[in-house]
Backbone:
């Protein structure tokens, strides 16, 4: 690969997303901006080989893309006979923005991609493609859908943005909290898929996790909203433990068996700083509460030293703020650690009676675990079997099968 | 990634002489150049009408040929363009820019990646 090719490849990887975000703002639409982005890189392949790599590739690409796009419009306008209408567009001078303004372009893009007027699955696809730079095919793989389904969602979402003229801007102070909720929700869902993939060969998808963290950093930089900081802290705490969750064979490692010396103390420290910043806030929302729980795990030297009483207390608050079957299940597991397996089994049974967990493999696995600890082997085997029937991800299935095999050996 | 853009049209509509169809045909003449300019073009050919086609089959070692297909009553395959695009959405955007997309339709199909296992049925 020649030096210019290498610079182009680097620029494509590093600058593509930011150049696109700026072009969408300057040209006022996704399609025009994507065309311009493509034109800019095509022009760079020629010009950089001839004139050398520019000092600021981002600025060069934005101005090339904008210039090419104006050219295209002029050509089309000449055909349509409306050339004079374009004079205004051509005259607007463009200067490369300051670094802060580039981040603003990405934020504007996040807010339009996560607009509540779009369906939630469309928001996720659009954010991953337009802000995250993932291809349609990569998104389809991550979400176990066919690429044409994703492509159609993206096309429809863009049409919706155009038809409803959704504003390409960071909402004002009054509107920000409501809109921020939707952004945080999308980032949370992206991170979750990266943390525990629904299916596919790998338990985690570091690319989705890294992108969610990058975007959460941008969102957190925008506001002192405790939930934005809480979400970033939550992501960092899980990211810090990622390597220890899987062994060399790609198998699941339970929290109790994880090598805590491999946890990334830098990330944990950063997360704790963020949680500290939010202490003054009166409102403790679901992300911050989950981050506080993750922090108690991250800070404990081992399972026995973990403050399970405090964890149960935080789950109690979380269950009030945002009640859900999964929160009830996690609370039950924590009770099992605090008060023993009998109390844990009662709590899991109660959580499952609350509904919504029948087809959730982890609920059956948690129940099986309590039964196993109580020595009720037959019932435990049945519950692991049910969990295995429902689990799809191969590493999780291997884990459940190993548990079943061990029970069989015990007799 | 590479994608095939399969261009379909209804012959009576495309060659029926309406101003829209004539404009699309005129633009088709240099559309390869547009795709070359944007760096998407890999290769492309337009096809004669199926009236000049034969269809070949081998069954039990015996070859048989028939004329056609004759499908003048519905859209027919009229051309194939291979493009290079970052993903399916980009390929679809490029395909939508083809003049025939306004008169007929363009099917976008990813080319097979032979390093991947074949689909199961």
Residues:
């Amino acid at each position: 690969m020649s030096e210019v090719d290498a610079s182009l490849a680097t620029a494509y990887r590093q600058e593509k997303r930011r150049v696109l975000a700026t072009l969408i703002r300057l040209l006022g639409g996704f399609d025009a901006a994507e065309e311009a982005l493509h034109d800019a890189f095509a022009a760079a392949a020629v010009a950089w080989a001839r004139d050398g790599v520019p000092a600021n590739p981002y600025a060069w690409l934005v101005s090339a893309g904008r210039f090419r796009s104006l050219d295209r419009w002029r050509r089309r306008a000449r055909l349509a006979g409306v050339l004079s209408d374009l004079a205004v567009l051509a005259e607007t001078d463009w200067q490369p923005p300051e670094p802060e303004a580039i981040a603003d372009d990405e934020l504007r893009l996040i807010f339009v991609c996560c607009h509540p007027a779009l369906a939630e699955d469309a928001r996720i696809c659009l954010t991953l493609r337009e802000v995250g730079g993932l291809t349609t095919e990569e998104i389809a793989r991550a979400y176990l859908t066919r690429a044409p389904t994703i492509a159609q969602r993206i096309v429809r979402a863009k049409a919706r943005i155009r038809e409803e003229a959704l504003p390409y801007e960071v909402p004002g102070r009054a509107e920000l909290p409501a809109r921020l909720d939707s952004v945080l929700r999308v980032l949370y869902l992206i991170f979750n898929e990266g943390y525990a993939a629904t299916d596919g060969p790998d338990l985690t998808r570091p690319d989705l996790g890294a992108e969610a963290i990058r975007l959460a950093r941008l969102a957190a930089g925008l506001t002192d909203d405790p939930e934005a900081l809480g979400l970033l802290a939550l992501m960092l705490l899980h990211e810090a433990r990622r390597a220890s969750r899987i062994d060399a064979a790609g198998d699941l490692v339970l929290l109790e068996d994880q090598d805590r010396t491999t946890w990334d103390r830098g990330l944990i420290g950063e997360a704790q700083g963020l949680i500290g910043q939010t202490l003054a806030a009166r409102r403790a929302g679901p992300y911050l509460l989950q981050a506080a729980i993750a922090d108690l795990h991250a800070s404990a030297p081992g399972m026995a030293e973990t403050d399970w009483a405090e964890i149960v207390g935080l789950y109690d608050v979380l269950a009030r703020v945002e009640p859900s079957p999964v929160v009830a299940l996690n609370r039950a597991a924590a009770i099992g650690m605090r008060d023993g397996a009998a109390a844990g089994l009662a709590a899991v049974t109660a959580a499952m009676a609350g509904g919504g967990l029948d087809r959730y493999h982890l609920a059956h696995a948690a129940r099986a675990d309590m039964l196993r600890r109580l020595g009720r082997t037959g019932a435990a085997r049945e519950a692991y079997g049910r969990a295995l029937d429902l689990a799809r991800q191969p590493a999780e299935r291997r884990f459940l099968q190993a548990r079943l095999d061990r029970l069989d050996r015990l007799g | 990634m590479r994608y095939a853009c399969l261009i379909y049209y209804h012959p009576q509509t495309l060659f029926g002489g309406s101003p829209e169809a004539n404009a699309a045909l005129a633009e088709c003449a240099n559309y390869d150049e547009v795709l070359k300019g944007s760096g998407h073009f890999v290769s492309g050919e337009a096809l004669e009408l199926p009236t000049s086609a034969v269809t070949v089959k081998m069954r039990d070692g015996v070859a048989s040929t028939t004329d056609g297909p004759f499908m003048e009553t519905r859209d027919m395959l009229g051309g194939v363009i291979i493009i290079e695009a970052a993903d399916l959405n980009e390929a679809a955007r490029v395909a939508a820019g083809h003049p025939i997309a306004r008169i007929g339709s363009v099917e976008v199909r990813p080319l097979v990646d032979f390093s991947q296992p074949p689909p199961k049925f």
Notes: Residues 31 and 100 of chain A are 25 Å apart (CA to CA). Chain A is about 70% helix and 0% strand. The first helix of chain A runs from residue 3 to 27. The two ends of chain A are 62 Å apart (CA to CA).
